[in-house]
Design brief:
Elements lengths: L2 H12 L6 H6 L11 H11 L4 E6 L5 H12 L5 E7 L13 H11 L7 H16 E9 L13 E9 L9 H22 L1 E7 L7 H16 L3 E6 L9 H6 L3 E5 L8 H14 L7 H11 L3 H18 L6 H16 L4 H13 L7 H8 L3 E4 L5 E4 L4 H7 L2
Parallel strand pairs: 1-6, 1-7, 2-5, 5-6
Antiparallel strand pairs: 3-4, 8-9
Helix pairs in contact: 1-12, 3-4, 5-6, 5-7, 5-8, 6-7, 11-12, 11-13, 12-13
């Protein structure tokens, strides 16, 4: 293998953290926020109120998962509190989830914390949780009603196998099942409390749930868990900030946090933050200053877009035969990124994006407005001022298409 190929593979691998933020944190790629981070705020509030509930909302790729992982580490520095991270989207189809699913997932997660030495004492509770969560088969015995012996055992009873659906992923919420589930969870929690203290669950993955009413139903599960003495931090979709149920969302949790995009255009600290992220991942001398500036600009202040754009630019550099990444490679990557992002935009959405591009004003009201935010075509900034902007990689294409 040539030294050049080996080097470029190393550079690509350094930016793979966009797919798995946990791996990025483990590799030491985490860069502290220029201001007080949400991770520190969440961890601090849980420290003084461990069984509290928290809702973290924001755009996909804005850095929420990284904040959760850092908050987990901060919380686990406490002697009497234990935080456990769980991506619920890996456990079930989130669009098919029903009330009670988060409780079932919490039960499974807690049961997995049980050590081998304690399993015998908690075997019944663990079995109950797994049966109710994932379903089970049950034999139903019925008395002989006719002369036929088909389907009957030697005792003269008919055996019928009934499949009971679990709560995960699409089972209905049955109050009796939920009560059994909570009783089993509480039984395990009481024993685990001697080792862990208060358990805090960090539930990630619901930021891709687009149904407000379903999210409202699901969020009620975390209040039930809190009543059991379990702390919860739940990640939710950006549209929750504009939903007709916003007040209801806020009433069901103790604290709500919003992770906006970083305003790399108007906030020097945000630009410096993104520059440090690139510096800690790329090898020395691989990125020149102009490349760094263009990558930061075209990212729009979205962490995942910064990672994806950098990887794309690295590929452009490798294919060009040049040893280091330069501005031309970033421009090519940004054009490709923009073309992919503009695909499928309706004429109405295009008109709205043009107005935002010219006027800098945007008031999300309709489903299509919210969709533009969810898909990261229009970006929302809060600091140093509230404003909206068309994604920088899209702006040139929007202008061209409306000329």
């Amino acid at each position: 293998m040539s030294n050049r190929l080996e080097r470029f593979r190393k550079e690509m691998a350094a930016f793979e953290g966009s797919a798995d933020p946990a791996r990025s944190v483990e590799r030491g790629h985490y860069v502290p926020h220029p201001k007080k981070s949400l991770a520190d705020t969440i961890a601090g509030r849980i420290a003084i109120r461990p069984a509290s509930t928290h809702l973290l909302i924001g755009g996909i790729g804005s850095g929420k998962t990284t904040e959760l992982l850092i908050a987990r580490d901060r919380i686990n520095e406490l002697e009497d509190t234990y935080a456990h991270y769980l991506d619920v989207s890996l456990e079930a189809d989130i669009s098919q989830m029903k009330p009670g699913v988060l409780i079932a997932m919490a039960g499974v997660a807690i049961s997995e914390l049980v050590s081998d030495s304690d399993k015998e004492n908690m075997h019944k509770s663990i079995a109950t949780i797994r049966k109710l969560a994932y379903g089970y088969k049950e034999n139903i015995y019925e008395s002989l009603l006719d002369d036929s012996d088909e389907g009957y055992d030697s005792s003269g009873e008919r055996v019928r196998v009934v499949e009971r659906k679990g709560i995960i992923p699409v089972g209905p919420k049955v109050p009796e099942e939920i009560q059994k589930l909570l009783a089993a969870i509480n039984s395990i929690k009481q024993i685990l409390s001697e080792k862990y203290g208060t358990i805090v669950l960090l539930l990630d993955g619901l930021d891709r749930l687009y149904e407000d009413k379903l999210f409202l139903e699901l969020i009620q599960d975390i209040k039930v868990l809190s009543d059991q003495g379990i702390g919860v931090v739940l990640v939710g979709p950006i549209q929750a900030a504009y939903s007709q149920y916003k007040t209801r969302f806020e009433s069901l949790v103790n604290s709500v946090y919003y992770q906006p995009c970083f305003d790399v255009t108007k906030d020097p600290d945000a630009r410096d933050f993104f520059a440090k992220i690139l510096a800690v991942r790329a090898s020395e001398g691989f990125l020149d200053q102009s490349s760094v500036e263009r990558l930061i600009l075209y990212s729009g202040g979205m962490l995942r877009d910064l990672m994806n754009l950098t990887q794309s630019a690295i590929q452009e550099a490798y294919l060009s035969g040049i040893d280091n990444l330069n501005e031309a490679h970033v421009e090519a990557a940004a054009q490709s990124f923009g073309r992919a992002k503009v695909f499928g935009i309706s004429d109405e959405a295009l008109d709205k994006m043009e107005r935002v591009s010219k006027e800098g004003k945007f008031l999300p009201r309709t489903e299509e407005d919210i969709k533009l935010l969810v898909e990261g075509k229009i970006l929302e900034y809060i600091y140093p001022e509230l404003r909206h902007a068309v994604h920088p990689a899209l702006s040139p294409l929007i202008i061209k298409s409306t000329v």
